[in-house]
Write a structure and sequence with these properties.
Shape: globular
Structural class: alpha/beta
Oligomer: single chain
Distance between the termini: 38 Å
Number of helices: 11
Strand order of the largest sheet: 3-2-1-4-5-6-11
Strand content: 15-25%
Largest sheet: 7 strands, parallel
Bound molecules: NADP nicotinamide-adenine-dinucleotide phosphate
Radius of gyration: 19 Å
Order of helices and strands: EHEHEHEHHEHEEHEEEHEEHEHH
Number of strands: 13
């Protein structure tokens, strides 16, 4: 039985990945941090609570990282823990850098010292690329436009350094946005689908958004965690862009979601709140995942329109409970 350790198991991807690894008969351990509010809902929704071992660890606390790695000795370590919301990174740049950047360094260093056989997946991000018109692949220029993107570049480059200098198996997945019913409420897709369901049920009147012109390459998180696992089943570590290879604007997402439930024109319900406009934003992100298709046999299965329906349907169902 293979052992896997997931940092950030309480997050969207952590929960889906834990489910996938359990289906593949792994022993699954995951880290969670002490917060004043319980954050285990996603594990409960997927009925995973009694099936995974939870370990207390914070990426800003090297002592807890060292203890966790020494204890768990995982065959595969998925470093998903992060302050993952780009918007919040403008307000908390230092925290974001500590968790996402130095936290990743702390993981690599602990593996080097205490568990060098562990294969590592590092959660890199399309936000590392920043603004430019080209379709992004593994060799595209990195020019991030947020403290979040910068912290991910630090972790990405550090991962490559540990791979080359210390021969540690680290693969970086450069994942473009991926969504699901388990997506955090602050993220624009979930904010929209949740509001659409609530407006439909007469529980909300207005949805406030920031920049609705920006375009993203949106896929389904369930597909993307499969790519993480595939990366660690290869003979050699490498970096892979994971994306659907098409992008859509927030405006387009609004149209799809409001029309799906028969509410008609979204303009009747949406207001722009200037406070939600970020100091810097990326106009368009679109990925080229042909390397992943060629080398690890990965392709997305959920199309953009189906993703919208999947999320809206789930939000409607939640309101019935
Ligand atoms: P998420 O839902 O926000 O989950 C983040 C996880 O990190 C949560 O379990 C969170 O714990 C944990 N965490 C936060 N601060 C921590 C700390 N100081 N120490 C330890 N753990 C901490 O994010 P996600 O969507 O699953 O994304 C997973 C990873 O992929 C992240 O690294 C993210 O940056 C990256 N990524 C995501 C996307 C995307 O579109 N989803 C795209 C590219 C890259 P709590 O539950 O306690 O908050």
């Amino acid at each position: 039985m293979k052992k896997a350790l997931i940092t950030g198991i309480t997050g969207q991807d952590g929960a889906y990945l834990a489910k996938l690894l359990l289906e593949k008969n792994y022993e699954v351990m995951g880290t969670f941090r002490r917060t004043s509010h319980r954050s285990l809902e996603r594990l409960e929704v997927l009925d995973l609570m009694n099936k995974v071992e939870l370990i207390k660890m914070d990426l800003t606390d090297q002592i807890s990282i060292n203890k966790t790695i020494k204890y768990s000795q995982p065959d595969e370590l998925y470093n998903l823990g992060a302050q993952s919301f780009v918007g919040a990174s403008f307000d908390q740049p230092l925290l974001t850098s500590n968790v996402n950047g130095l936290g990743a360094l702390g993981i690599f260093e602990a593996v080097k010292e205490f568990s060098p056989h562990s294969k590592i997946y590092q959660a890199s991000s399309s936000e590392m690329f920043g603004n430019s018109d080209e379709i992004k692949n593994e060799n595209s220029r990195m020019y991030p436009a947020s403290p979040y993107g910068i912290s991910k570049v630090f972790a990405h480059k550090t991962a490559q350094h540990y791979r080359e200098a210390y021969d540690i198996f680290i693969s970086c997945g450069i994942l473009f946005n991926h969504e699901s019913p388990l997506r955090g409420l602050e993220f624009v897709t979930k904010k929209i689908t949740s509001a659409v369901a609530r407006i439909k049920a007469n529980k909300q009147e207005t949805l406030y958004l920031g920049n609705i012109k920006s375009k993203r390459d949106w896929g389904f998180a369930g597909d993307y965690v499969k790519a993480m696992w595939l990366m660690l089943q290869q003979q050699k570590p490498s970096d892979y862009v994971i994306a659907t290879n098409e992008s859509h604007s927030v405006e387009d997402f609004l149209t799809g979601a409001f029309e799906y439930v028969g509410l008609g024109d979204w303009r009747k319900y949406v207001k722009i709140d200037k406070k939600l406009i970020r100091p810097q934003d990326i106009d368009n992100l679109i990925g080229d995942s042909s390397k992943a298709k060629r080398e690890i046999g990965w392709e997305p299965t959920v199309q953009y329109k189906d993703l919208i329906r999947l999320m809206v349907d789930d939000d409607l169902k939640l309101l019935e409970k």
